[in-house]
């Protein structure tokens, strides 16, 4: 498919949040169920078929910065400003685990699928790894002396990347959580990471730059995709595309090979897009879902000519 000749249409806008939205996740067992959260102190469940509010999944005690649907389960991990990590069964609306980092907010949560582990990073630069079978804390290790906002796990599961406030990218071996390498990439904090299946790593930062790095963290390519912070990077390997979002209110789609701009989805380009910072997004099959400081959720879809 050649997205360059296709259009991106807005399928729907979901409203109801009273405050900025920071996190979203699609259910692992039902692709038409979406969860969103932010400053509302609650996680909202939406029906993507009817494009409507379904229910308040659960109330929480502080702002939510990260959500993760645990693969092949009905469990949703919720990372909060308080340092709590709640695991909720979305089928029964029951709390399965109440985990905690020692201090500071939880900005990122991932799973290491092959090891059945859940990994989260606390604001103080410590990483925590729990068993997905019984939620016992297995490892706790220092990644950085400063805040770490983003974790990304390589598709093979063997390498975990972290991005910190100093602009450094850290690579750890997922077997023993020993650091393989670290390198300063950005002049400002790292705010997004995404692995390619090849092992190359994309890194976005508050300096508005996007770097494509090889497995040794050497720069292959560098572009300035946005005017402000790059808050998210998503790959669509089947279509050979990469998408980015930013505080500059734009969603952009690029050719994966040469990082040539294909689509700029923004109000300036005539789209009914967000009018404040786009904080998080995901690319789920043929849908791109974005959430924003403007309190809305937007669902986009590629339309063939």
Automatic annotation (TrEMBL):
WD repeats lie at residues 14-56, 223-264, 271-301. SMART domains: WD40. Signal peptide: none annotated. Residues 115-196 form the Anaphase-promoting complex subunit 4-like WD40 domain. Gene3D superfamilies: YVTN repeat-like/Quinoprotein amine dehydrogenase. InterPro entries: Apc4-like_WD40_dom (IPR024977), WD40/YVTN_repeat-like_dom_sf (IPR015943), WD40_repeat_CS (IPR019775), WD40_repeat_dom_sf (IPR036322), WD40_rpt (IPR001680). PROSITE patterns: WD_REPEATS_1 (PS00678), WD_REPEATS_2 (PS50082), WD_REPEATS_REGION (PS50294). This is WD40 repeat domain-containing protein. It comes from Sphingobacterium daejeonense.
